[in-house]
Design goal:
alpha/beta, single chain, D-tyrosyl-trna(Tyr) Deacylase, Chain: A, 147 residues, globular
C-alpha cells in the first residue's frame, strides 16, 4: 500500500458540497491499495502510521505520535498514488482492482482505529473535494514495500 501523510491542524472532505469527513489536529492520509496488497499489508501500514513520531513535543522536536497528542485522522482513497509516469499520461495498472482497493481502504481505516486513532473517511470512488491546513508543513510518503 502507498500513503501520503500530511500533518494537519484541520482537514475535511466533501462530496457534492456535503461534508462527509473531517479531522482536527492529526493526519490527512491519502491511501492507495496496490495490486497484490492484502489485509496484512493494510494492518502493517496502519500500525506504522499510528506510531510515526512527527508531532512536536514540549521542546519543539518531532517526537510524538498521533496517538500521543490525542489526534485523529481523515483517510481518503487516492488511486492516483499508483501512477506510472514513464509516459506523459499516467497509467494506473499497478493499483489494486476497485473491489480489492475498496476493501483494503476500509480495512486500513479500521486497523488505524483499532490502533487508537479516531478515523473519519472520504467516500471510495467518489469525486471528492479535500481541503486542509498543513501543519509545518510536514508531508510523508510511505510505501509498505519499503517498510
Amino acid at each position: 500500500m502507498r500513503a501520503v501523510l500530511q500533518r494537519v491542524s484541520s482537514a475535511e472532505v466533501r462530496v457534492d458540497g456535503i461534508l462527509i469527513g473531517a479531522t482536527g489536529q492529526g493526519f490527512l492520509i491519502l491511501v492507495c491499495a496496490m495490486a497484490g496488497d492484502t489485509e496484512a499489508t493494510a494492518a502493517k501500514l496502519a500500525a506504522k502510521v499510528a506510531k510515526l513520531r512527527v508531532f512536536k513535543d514540549d521542546q519543539g522536536k518531532m517526537n510524538l505520535s498521533v496517538r500521543d497528542i490525542g489526534g485523529s485522522a481523515l483517510v481518503v482513497s487516492q488511486f492516483t498514488l499508483a501512477a506510472d509516469l514513464r509516459g506523459n499520461r499516467p497509467g494506473f495498472s499497478t493499483a489494486a482492482p476497485p473491489d480489492l482497493g475498496e476493501r483494503l481502504y476500509h480495512h486500513f481505516s479500521a486497523c488505524l482505529a483499532s490502533e487508537g486513532v479516531p478515523v473519519a473517511k472520504g467516500q471510495f470512488g467518489a469525486d471528492m473535494a479535500v481541503s486542509l491546513t498543513n501543519d509545518g508543513p510536514v508531508t510523508i510518503w510511505m510505501d509498505t514495500d519499503t517498510l
